[in-house]
Amino acid sequence: MQFPAAQIALLIAGKVEGDPNTTVFSFGKIEEAKKGQLAFLANPKYEEHLYTTQASVVIINDTLELKQAVAATLIRVPDAYTAFATLLTKYQEIAAQQLVGIQEPCYVSKSAELGEKIFVGAFAYIGENVSIGNNAKIFPNAYVGNNVKIGDNSVLHAGVKIYHDCVIGKHVTVHAGTVIGSDGFGFAPQTDGSFKKVPQIGNVMVEDFVEIGANATIDRATIGSTIIRSGAKLDNLIQIAHNVEVGNNTVIAAQAGVSGSTKIGSNVMIGGQAGIVGHLQIADGSRINAQSGVSKSIKTPNSAVTGSPAFDYTNALRSQAVSRKLPEIEKRLKELENLVKQLLAEKV
C-alpha cells in the first residue's frame, strides 16, 4: 500500500512542508529509514537524524525550529508521537479489513452467534452460545469457551484462552498466550493441614478499549466478577487475581501482580514487578514505583509510593539518600563519641 504525504496529513490533521505528492509504502526509524518510508521525530535527542535521514516523509512537532535544510517532506502536527500512533492504528485497521472469514480446520458451535466481517483463524475453538461482534478477529489456536461474549472490533491474538461466561467488550485487544477466566486461587485450610478448593463460579468482565499484553493471566471471581474497566492497559506477564477491580485508564507494567479482591482506582500507574496484597484500596491517580511491595491501602488520591514495603515516594528517596551516607555518618558518630569521652576525662 502506498500513500502520498497529502493523504497522510489529512489522517493526522497535519500541515505539509515540501512535496505533498511524495509517497511512502512503509515505516522506519528516523535514524534507519530508507527512501519510500515514513518516520517521525518526537524526542529532541534524535533531531540530528532529521537532517541526514533518507526517509521520504517525516512527522514532526509544530514547535520544532529547523537548524538546517531537510531533504524529506515534513508533516507538522501538535504532537508527533500521538500523530504517529494514530497513523499506525489506521494502518492496522486497513490491514485487518483484509482478514475476513473462517479458516479451516476450526470448530465453531452451531449455537454461536457471529457478527459481520469477522475472522476466525485455523484451529480456533468457538464454544456453545458464544456471541462475537462485528469486525472481531479471532486468530489461530484461540479458545473461546461457552457463553463468552466478545464485542465489536475486538481482537484475540494467537493462543488466547477465554474461559466460559467471560465478557469481553468492544475494541479490546488481547495478545498471544493470555488466559482470561482461569480459576481464582481459592483454597480453604482444613484442620488436618490440607486445603479444600473453593469453586470459582464468577467470571471476568473486560470493558471497552482495554489492551492486555502477552501471557497475562486474569482469574475469574469466586462470586461476581473480576473487572478490568474501560481504557485500562495491561502489559505482558501480569497476574490479576480473583475479584480484583482495575479502574478506568489504569496502566500496569510487566510482571506486576495484584492479589485477590483489591480495588484499584482510575488513572493509576503501576510499575513493573510491583506486588499488591489482597483486599486493599488503591486511590485514583496513585503511582506505584517498579518493584514496590504494597501491603496497605493507598487512600490519598495521586499519591506516589516506592519500596518494599512501599511508602511515600519523596520520603523514600530521602531515606535512600541518607542510607548511602551511613558509612560516613557512622565514622562521624564514632569521632563524636571519642571526643565526648576525651572531654569527660578532662573534667575528671
Task: Give structural attributes.
UDP N-Acetylglucosamine Acyltransferase, domain 1; ten-stranded parallel sheet; twelve-stranded mixed sheet; alpha/beta; flat; Udp-n-acetylmuramoylalanyl-d-glutamate--2,6- Diaminopimelate Ligase, Chain: A, domain 1
Describe the structure.
With 348 residues, the protein is α/β, with parallel strands linked by helices. It folds into three domains: 3-96, Udp-n-acetylmuramoylalanyl-d-glutamate--2,6- Diaminopimelate Ligase, Chain: A, domain 1 (3-Layer(aba) Sandwich); 101-315, UDP N-Acetylglucosamine Acyltransferase, domain 1 (3 Solenoid); 316-347. 18% of the residues lie in helices and 28% in strands. The chain is built from five helices and 40 strands. The strands form six sheets. A twelve-stranded mixed beta sheet has the order 8-11-14-17-20-25-28-31-34-37-39-40. The chain has a ten-stranded parallel beta sheet with strand order 9-12-15-18-21-26-29-32-35-38, with no helix packed on it. It has a nine-stranded parallel beta sheet with strand order 10-13-16-19-24-27-30-33-36, with no helix packed on it. The longest helix has 22 residues, at 326-347. The relative contact order is 0.05. The mean pLDDT is 94.
